[in-house]
Amino acid sequence: MSLHPLIALANDRDVKQAKGFRAAAEKLTGASLEADYQAETTNVPKRSAEDLKYLGVRVGRKAKQRQNNKDEKHLAEAIARAAKEESAPAFELPTGESLTIVDHSVPIKTAAADKEKGDADPNAGIDEIPLLAVIGEDRPAVAVLKFLEPEATRSGAGDTPLRLFLQGLAHAAAVDGNREALKAEIAEATGKTLGEEAPAVILAASPQYWKLCRKREAQKGAGWIRELERLAREIGESIGTEVFFVALSTDTSEGVGWNYDGEGAVLAGEVSFDKAWETGAGKLKPKPKPKKTDPADEIVEADLSRPVRQYNIRESFEPGDRIAHKTLGEGVVQGVTGRGKIAVLFGEEKKLLIHERA
Question: Which of 65, 104, 116, 347 has the most crowded CB, counting CB atoms within 10 A?
Fold first, then answer.
């Protein structure tokens, strides 16, 4: 069994499938996620025990251009850099709460994962926290990003909303498990002192991502929104973690909303954090019942293979017969409406006539 059940769950085949993640979400509960969260918190690597820092750790070369599968990493870097400028924008959640960006690509591993240990290695499967932040004055938060360009037609294999949800919860557990060490570094970097609330999770994706997710499952789109909102409520009660579903918009007047300088990715304009979907989007609309067709409203076309017959109350007529009436003109028999009666359509008007009168 993995030491990191939330990470294992995020990588589950059904969770990653566009057609299967809603059903996978239905099987989860706040209680089951709380148990997984506690396991994550207990087993997460402790960098402070190895005298390793969390904030300001940078490895590798500075990005000079867009790279495959690195948009989210670069966007997080650009946002974090903007937050440190003197004229830093005031980031705000859809609820109106202030959002202070602390750092991006925050490492949690103490070393590279040991393949020989497999799942028994605490570092196995651990990723960096995309964005570490503080909501208001003292509430820690983690943000998971998903970027799509406005004209994108696909959201990427495996990147379902449920997977982002579970990844965010795993990052929150990592912060909880390293709270005291992070508390000291965050206070030094921002002057803010973390409170005791469970870390919040911000799922910040491009508006086009949320649009495609809803379009992809059509009527079922409301179903997965309903399930994620349910899980968010339940973990809020069981763990205390609040989840924000956010549409992260970037200024696309210049490229994708960011570009590159000698220090890496830098914002080209403003970013905004809006609601991912409207209130009530998770409510399933009942499928309209098929309208019952009144046989009396159905039009029977004339059978042109039959000759026009003069109307006579003693004659017998069938649907489709053409009859000539001395005052009403030519009509088409629509059907028998009762004993000795037929409905005949003359133009757009139906008339009841007698037939089979002995």
Answer: 104
**pLDDT tens digits, 179-238:** 999 999 999 998 888 999 999 999 999 999 999 998 876 556 788 999 999 999 999 999
Distance CA 197, CA 188 (A): 20
| φ/ψ (deg, to 5) at 234 | -70, -40
**Amino acid sitting at position 263:** E
DSSP string for 113-143: --TTTGGGSTTTT---EEEEEEETTTEEEEE
8 A C-beta contact, residue 167 and residue 125: no
Nearest to 219, CA basis, from 288, 151, 276, 153 = 288
Q: Kindly report the number of other CB atoms within 10 A of residue 20's CB atom.
A: 15
Q: In angstroms, rounded to a whole number, what is the distance separating the alpha carbons of residues 42 and 46?
A: 10
The structural domains of the chain, with segments of one domain joined by +, span 5-275, 295-354
- Distance, in Å, from the CA atom of 162 to the CA atom of 205, rounded to the nearest integer, reads 13
pLDDT of residue 293: 56
Q: What is the rounded CA–CA span in Å between residue 347 and residue 332?
A: 9
Closest Cα partner for 333 from 315, 319, 347? 319
Residue keyed to tokens 């921002």: 190
User: Helix, strand, or coil here: 111?
Assistant: coil
Chain centroid, CA 323 distance in Å: 62
Question: Residues in the chain, how many?
Answer: 358
Backbone angles phi, psi at 167, to 5 degrees: -65, -45
What sign results for the dihedral spanned by CA atoms 186, 192, 198, 199? negative
Helix (H, G, I), strand (E, B) or coil at 277: coil
Q: Which residues share a beta bridge with 354?
A: 341
